[in-house]
Design goal:
The protein is mainly alpha-helical. The protein has 7 helices and 2 strands, in the order E-E-H-H-H-H-H-H-H. A two-stranded antiparallel sheet has the order 1-2. A hairpin with a 4-residue loop joins strand 1 and strand 2. Helix 2 runs antiparallel to helix 4, helix 4 crosses helix 6 and helix 6 runs antiparallel to helix 7. It is flat, with a radius of gyration of 29 Å.
């Protein structure tokens, strides 16, 4: 093991060209390869946690699945209990259950996924505007503002009462999720 020019005892990788020896570490930066160093190499870390796309994909996926299962169960039970299916044969009731699950599950999943996409976008905008710092360092400002903006945007064409109600519901849900235990997030 030969000593390197800096005096450390890093193994020297050489290439024999006949009568010369070339130190590969001197050529490494030219090829985009880092020289072996004595300090550890750390992964990139974002202090805010996940990046925008990671949060967006996660939020949309979880919301879509929750909407599919929740809406599907509600639709399946309501169609199974409907007066038309009460006196029918088992196969007809089962068909009614599956139709209700598919109809309500798909629409609820799409609605929840769209709301999650809007929320992720508004949250990213709030973080880039540094709403927490503007509001005096309170960490709940950005999620609650994103929830309000999501509700307002989602119901923006439904009239002023629906817009205000959706904004309040979005803000309350975002505040509840922000203040929930970390195991639920």
């Amino acid at each position: 093991m030969a000593a390197s020019p800096s005096g450390s005892s890093v193994p020297r990788r050489t290439m024999s060209t006949g009568h010369d020896e070339i130190d590969v570490r001197t050529l490494a930066p030219m090829f985009g390869v880092q020289s072996p160093v004595a300090e550890p190499d750390y992964l990139d870390y974002d202090i805010r946690g996940r990046g925008f796309l990671e949060r967006t994909f996660f939020n949309c996926g979880v919301a879509y699945l929750a909407g599919m299962f929740g809406g599907g169960l509600a639709g399946g039970l309501s169609s199974y209990r409907s007066p038309e299916a009460r006196g029918a044969a088992f196969r007809v009731r089962l068909n009614s259950l599956m139709n209700g699950f598919g109809k309500r599950g798909a629409s609820a999943g799409n609605a929840f996924g769209a709301c999650a996409l809007l929320y992720s976008c508004w949250e990213s905008i709030g973080e880039s505007m540094k709403l927490d710092a503007i509001a005096g360092g309170y960490s709940f400002v950005t999620p609650v503002a994103a929830g309000v903006a999501t509700g307002v945007t989602y119901k923006s064409l439904a009239g002023p009462r629906a817009v205000v109600l959706a904004g309040v519901v979005g803000g309350v849900l975002a505040a509840a999720l922000h203040n929930s235990p970390t195991s639920l997030r």
